[in-house]
């Protein structure tokens, strides 16, 4: 097989094993020129191993890696035209910001004047002008992360590889750096592979997302696509809170404790997924406009005001788990804990069979 010359990065049947355990198993995907592709999944699912294999820091047992149409599977890391930003930043502690950023141009044999000019330009782009003579120990976590980005960008790679780069920052800095990554990407247009376990981070940054589990690539698509059309129960559960309700398909209908749904599925046991934005609450009568099948009544057992969002935990009749219902603060119906409410849900929820495969 040959790599796709229209893709900046192409993986074909990639597998890496540690002893008898496969860290990644037959992984294939393409990263298009100029896009941010996020590998998303829980810890230990193979995301970082996949990234390291693209970078040349791990050797595959099977499969191939292509960069800009050229097979680089057996090439050393330094010749792959990629650059990695690590979770731990990996800055040289004895070098200043300028010296850290100059490192790649210096290794490429650039003159002192030229590499200083390039480094200062990148430092300005990442918002660290005035910090050129500072040492890493004098910088905040966010500033260290910016230096790590600047050092990778100064190498002018075809592919930027980001390994959980924001995981060591607090929530406020993570939000700030997500926007900073987007700004830097708009400035440089680098093809980027970004590894993260954070759905919000992936959905903020990615043009496309690849969902991984147990070393396998489960689904690839735009963020809105994988959220609204998950291929299986794992993807649906991983991409946000949901309540799974047991049901039975018979004669084209799904009977659940919550509601009855029409279904084009084979008879048998299923699970119905109901996300907070798909569960509607109202005063016991009438049912809300825009709601789906009415399930009857429930009791508000918890109301959580999160500022812009209000969430309700509702114990519905004949249902073991609580249903979650979510409203923007402006649309909050204003129910109190202990109050009885009518509950309705969407007409077309996601339905999964006993193996976790999506059936409707």
From TrEMBL:
Residues 9-239 form the ABC transporter domain. It is a peripheral membrane protein. It is an enzyme of class 7 (translocase). GO terms for molecular function: ABC-type ferric iron transporter activity; ABC-type tungstate transporter activity; ATP binding; ATP hydrolysis activity. It comes from the Archaea. It is found in: Cell membrane. It catalyses: tungstate(in) + ATP + H2O = tungstate(out) + ADP + phosphate + H(+). The keyword Membrane applies. Its EC number is 7.3.2.6. SMART domains: AAA. Its main location: membrane. Keywords: ATP-binding, Cell membrane, Ion transport, Iron, Iron transport, Membrane, Molybdenum, Nucleotide-binding, Transport. GO terms for cellular component: ATP-binding cassette (ABC) transporter complex. The keyword Transport applies. Belongs to the ABC transporter superfamily. Sulfate/tungstate importer (TC 3.A.1.6) family. The complex is composed of two ATP-binding proteins (WtpC), two transmembrane proteins (WtpB) and a solute-binding protein (WtpA). Part of the ABC transporter complex WtpABC involved in molybdate/tungstate import. Responsible for energy coupling to the transport system. This is Molybdate/tungstate import ATP-binding protein WtpC.
